Amino acid sequence: MKLTRKTSIFASILVAVIATSTIGYAAIPCQKRIKIVDHTLKLVDGTPQMKTRDMLTLINDINGLRTGTGLINYNGRSYNVEELAQKEHRETLQTLAAENALIAAIKHFQAISADYLNKARGHKTQMGHIIKAWATQRGITESILLEWSKQSVGQEHEEFKKLVKNFRTLDEFLEHLGCFLMDMSASCPKSFAIYKAERK
């Protein structure tokens, strides 16, 4: 399902589905949550940098960019990232228009993720461990998300531009990040308890 800001965020953690892709890479069964087993996650669960609300807000925004109403202009039409990845898979896109559209999509992601990244910077090293543990449990050996998580603090945006070469890689990254955040939000009982208390 596509999440909107009108949807109860409390309900979204239970029922949200990250759409999976079949565009040349292995789709993740994100409809089924997993509990991330990692000692590092237990240490940061419940800290201000690991707020459930922040994770769900970013998931919502990722869904909008990836599969929602088109936010990216390509040749005078609006597309979402998944649509452009599919189009890119079927045909050769016009180079300049595709480059401009990809730049716009990357900037949009950077805008929606800036607040979360700023808050999470205090746990940069720990987040890298958690992402690696998550990928192992999901059976993922190669992912832009894994490479991105290794970047130095403050260099994430610039390195992201180098890692994302086309819409296929951006679509894969957004799918993996969305799935990771959903799994992580379901694996942080302390953070979730704080979230529920704040909503009362």
> Strand sequence of the main sheet, in spatial order?
1-2
Give the overall shape. globular
Estimate what percentage of residues fall within beta strands. Answer: under 5%
Structural class: mainly alpha
Biggest β-sheet description: 2 strands, antiparallel
Q: Overall pLDDT, averaged?
A: 84
Terminus-to-terminus distance: 26 Å
Strand runs, count: 2
What are the segments in which pLDDT stays under 50 over at least 5 consecutive residues? 1-22
Notes on the structure:
The structure is a single chain. The chain is mostly helical and 200 residues long. The chain has one domain (9-199). It has ten helices and two strands; from the N terminus they run H-H-H-E-E-H-H-H-H-H-H-H. Strands 1-2 form a two-stranded antiparallel ribbon. Strand 1 and strand 2 form a beta hairpin. Helix 3 (52-67) packs antiparallel against helix 5 (95-120) and helix 3 runs antiparallel to helix 9 (167-185). The radius of gyration is 16 Å and the shape is globular. Residues 1-22 have low confidence and may be disordered.
